[in-house]
Amino acid sequence: MSGVRLAATLVGILAAGACAYGGQASPGPAGPPIAPSGGVATPAPGAAIRHFDLTAAPLALQLGPGVKALAWAYNGQVPGPTIRVAQGDLVVVTLHNRLPEGTSIHWHGLAVPNGEDGVAGVTQDAIPPGESATYSFVATATGTYWYHSHQDSAAQVGRGLYGPLIVDPPGAAPAGVADRTLIYDEWPLGLLGSRAPKAGDPLLITYTTYSVNGRTGAAIAPVTWQPGQTVRLRLVDAGNLVHFLHLDGIPYRVVAFDGHSVTGGPLVTDVLAIGPGERIDVEFEGSARSSWLRMLDSMPPAEQAGVALQPIGSAPPVGGSPSPVHDAVLDPFTYTATAAGPDAVPSALPPTRSYTVALTSATMPGMPGMPASPDGVAYQMNGAVFPETGALDVRTGDIVWLTFVNQSRADHPIHLHGHLLTLVARSGSPAVGVIVKDTVVVHPGASVTVAFRADNPGWWMLHCHELYHAAGGMMMLLRYLDVPRLANLGGPYHSQPD
Question: How far, in Å, CA of 404 to CA of 161, rounded?
């Protein structure tokens, strides 16, 4: 727990006891932990029931030759097993906790019932060591999603507790498509046992190893295809940095942002910027020529994250260093594509509630007996750190506009649980296409406005998905009025989302 978060929590507890959005005054007796709730028992008509077991446990992870990390993993692998289901399926996942502390699972991007959202201290208690819990929900939306811990997530996701979740349309998979998922992550200096960036490192330059699907450098498996196949790449950023990816010499089309399909997008050769928590799906026609999917970040570890793209039976591409010259960066606010389903909020529909959230930061001095925040900075929403940030109130049926104003010097990928965000405008300029997302990067000095329908009652997290920023305080709650909160911070199971 960061010093910022711990200090704010203790101040709130001492001043107000168990406040409406904070923790509880003391742990109290340890009764049974609050489990996931509100799950359903039947799939959609004609769909299946899909059961999965995940065991979270420590793992000595071999990232590459001579590069090991003391990871935490699902089923002995990083990323965890792919959970792949069809739209309408009932997904039943039992999590067995073999870690030395509590944990949970959040289904990032899926609008599940509130009690299944997996946020420790908000929708459930952390699952204690040696215990198990079962989640159940219907996969209502197709697309590329992912799952990860939401108990002390800056540390637990940072150690490897994440995996892909793919929801296919009903029926057979399309023929002739080579479908590949690539999950990007960063690992810190001193891989054995590291939990946080070095103090005073706001740019996270101590992350000296980058990985793709849990491997780095020459250990990264190539993406292969039969000549003539369409290739679909599902790109996921599970780390803490915005990454810049480039398909060398390959025109591609974006077919989904954050899992939500779009149509009508042009063929481009732009660099792809993908922020923490975001997903981008692209398609291209697989030629007979090998190439690279390169990372063009300015930091040297980017050279470790190149992915070879090659037809089956062909030689791998030559050269592994990023090219110094590349195209413009693809911008979802100017990309001329249209959401393929009914999820977007029409731009002509006026909001019934509007909120503005200022994203700021301030140096947080250490307090006696308390650790400093990971990079020595308090990350704030409207001048406060969680849990003192309070809640944004809505009622079922509201059309809500949220405007985030970034007054800090860092990017902030803002993620809202349980809802779909339609891009409205950035810094006063309206979005060109109709794009639906669940995570949106707000750059320094910019403002971003999004819209959503209040159609999923509960108490939901709204936070920066650069998880050390969330741990430093950049979290708040979206609260449906007259709906009870399911769990509180702290308590005998030390529940804490970040």
Answer: 29
| Domains, the chain, with CATH or none | 32-168 (2.60.40.420), 177-330 (2.60.40.420), 353-480 (2.60.40.420)
DSSP state of 120: B
**Rounded Cα distance, 143 and 87, in Å:** 9
Q: pLDDT exceeding 90 applies to what percent of the chain? A: 76
The model carries a pTM of: 0.90
Q: Decide: helix, strand or coil at residue 379.
A: strand
End-to-end CA separation in angstroms for the chain = 8
| C-alpha to C-alpha distance for 245 and 272, rounded to whole angstroms | 5
From the DSSP assignment, how many helices (H) and strands (E) are in the chain? 3, 32
Token digits of residue 25: 């005054």
The tens digit of pLDDT for each residue in 349-385 reads 999 999 999 999 987 654 333 334 566 788 999 999 9
Find, among 120, 150, 98, 107, the residue nearest to 34 by Cα: 120
The conformation of residue 34, written as its DSSP 8-state character, comes to: P
Distance between CA atoms of residues 85 and 71, nearest Å:
27
CB 479 within 8 A of CB 393: yes
Closest Cα partner for 117 from 387, 373, 351, 438?
Answer: 438
Contacts 24+ apart (CB under 8 A), 479-484: 479/21, 479/391, 479/392, 479/393, 479/394, 480/393, 480/394, 480/395, 480/396, 480/454, 481/393, 481/394, 481/395, 482/395, 483/114, 483/457, 483/458, 483/459
The tokens of 252 are what?
């591609």
What length does the chain have? 498
- One-letter amino acid identity for 497? P
As a whole number of angstroms, the distance between CA 126 and CA 101 comes to 9
Distance separating alpha carbons of residues 433 and 195, to the nearest angstrom: 40
- Name residue 20's amino acid: A
> Taking phi first (over 0 means left), then psi (-120 to 50 degrees means alpha), and beta for anything else, what does residue 187 get?
beta
Which tokens sit at 205? 């330059």
Closest CA to 107 of 99, 95, 120, 119: 119
Query: Chain-wide mean pLDDT for the chain?
Result: 88
Q: Report residue 198 CA to chain centroid gap.
A: 22
pLDDT tens-digit map of 139-189: 999 999 999 999 999 999 999 999 999 999 998 777 788 999 999 999 876
